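ok so I'm stuck.
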Amino acid sequence: MHTIVTTKLIFNDDQKASMYIKDTTHKRLSRIAYLAMIRNHALEPILHNKIHMSTNGSRRFLKVLFLNDIAFSSQDAIRLLQTNHGDYSAACALDFINPIKFYDTFATRDTDGYSMGLPLYPFFAPGQSQSQIRQGHDLVHVKSCWSGMVAFDSAPFENGLKFRSLSNESTYDASECCLIHADINQPNRTFINTKIRVAYSNIVYVWQKRLAYFETIWIPIQKFITYVAGLPRYNKYRTSGNGGFCWISGKKLLKDYH
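replied:
not stuck anymore, here's the structure
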């Protein structure tokens, strides 16, 4: 028997204020602060300890599955949840914006906390994550990922973990989808499942799977452009605390309010 739990989205004044960045003439909505609050709202039944315990005190929820506005199949979701026989902190799909181009470079970091190379196969800059992809591993270790569909062990959320954004006063920004991995801090149990591939349209979903058989042809092009473009970008905060490996320069904003 399954229970569907719905919650009504209502923000108080303090929550609303925390989502806006003000300058001398405008009040602009922070995309990351807004998304972090939306994700936390979706987790409220678990965060508030309302429904995750059964009558005998055992855990009712083992996994939390997040999905973007993607094309996927039910089997994709099931197989992702079963990644590594269920033994993971987080398991992500690979998402594609066109049949050959990986999409979620904003939230994905390799095992050393570096951002992506050119987002063609093998996607990463040289390092352990790239090596595992080129060696044909189904599971690739990463420090963070999201990629359109991600499954988490529910335990950190049951213990009160929430999505967050950087301070509005910071000149840097970071995806809430990356910062959550920094806060969970279990990189040895964080994977991209390379067999689960999703897309942002049905036609890309179909064609990506067909072209995946030939994707190794992109290796020399990806290697050359990654090198020439100086990827991954230098991040002086990569090894610092507070999810420094997620940080990028500049704020992502949604709209202006006068």
